[in-house]
Structure prediction request, 480 residues.
Amino acid sequence: MTKNRATVLAIDIGAESGRVMAVHFDGSSLQLEEVHRFPNYALTVNGVLQWDILHLWREVQAGIGRSKAHAAETPSSLAVDTWGVDFGLLDRNGDLIGNPVCYRDSRTEGMLEAVFARVPRAEVFAQTGIQFMAINTLYQMMSLVAGSSPQLQIAARFLTVPDLLNFWLSGVQVCEFSNATTTQMLNPFTRSWAGGLLDALGIPADLFPEVVQPGTRLGAFDGVPVIAPACHDTGSAVAGVPAQTAKFAYISSGTWSLVGLEVAQPVVNEAALAVNATNEGGVYGSFRLLKNVMGLWLLQQCRSTWEQTGRAYSYPELVSLAESAEPLRSFVDPNDDRFLPPGDHPAHIQAFCEQSGQPLPQSDAAIARCVFDSLALAYRDVLSELQSLTEQPIEVIHVVGGGSRNRLLNQLTADATGIPVLAGPGEATVIGNALVQLISLGELANLDEGRQLVAEIGALERFDPNEQDSWRDVKMPAIN
Prediction:
């Protein structure tokens, strides 16, 4: 295969910001160039927490335009990835019916129970293989059914957020596989919508379009081919893991931490249900057996609360504070419901510690240390559960994403798990997005070849376990 120079645009949008990145491939190496960066935010309108999707659409177009204006040649392709679970509804003319609602909105309260009243929990898992979380699309859709939403009554098409942007870019209404699995409405075995589940819940099955695989060419925008990558940002991040062995685990570390294994087949059985594991779609036939851990969101919310009282910290300063505090003193369960909405997380952390009979972290340093220790403990427990499901040995943990730059958390993860950590790249999501494009274009033969390129970037840092004895008897606390 002849390899030529190609530049692809990876459009990566997270819950806090988005960027358009040019990824240059010269046949043997990758070079990343930031073209455009923009904020993302949810805002409350009429009591509902919503995304400003038209702002995102404007910024995506601006980034593409800026790339074309400054590049020596037109990009070979472009691809969009975003966070999962959120969606838009279109009417029969293809017009958007209202802004996509943020997964942190309160409309899903009580919706798990509403679903289980119609379909048993075990049956929902058997049909979808997805972790039970109130944020999942299934419970957002159930809130529309339960409230007899007029939006649902006039809707003709359902598209997740990246699929909506892809529709506006390409004119094609489809849902990409990796992101569709996050909805908890797709059957991982048939790789199509779980029609029986939807019918039982009163969710109109005809809303849901064709499901396409990562690497599918959708159309073109202003002359640039539009390719569906793994449209779920974690799917792209895992594609960008520089794995050199099949015996690896990954932590995609950011606002959320996605902790898991790459497997060939979904694991949907009673044991997986018992530990609330999830089987999200990956690239090229793989699945991501994982669990969601509420990640650095806890620290972000602490930082925001402290800033409102005049104590403004940079993230490096918070790491330094945590390093100065007594280790392994207090822990919280990061996935406790109180931590999901925005709020006074220092007070929430103290309340959790008090209710679970632990020492109260009083200082900002102690609270920050509690967050880091708690995340490392949660990672250890998740990986232990996933290993019990697969009996797959883990030789190394790849930590990717923005959180991979947090050296304290990386070391604590190695110590807690007893497994070496390889941290980086921080831009794994962008890289994984680009690798799928380059494979689709014929510039790379397969994902193994792409991952070898990532491993050769040379920005990885190794953390070996050195405090295993201290963690041996530590257990996640429970509320009394």
In short: The longest strand covers residues 30-39. Residues 364-390 form the longest helix (27 residues).
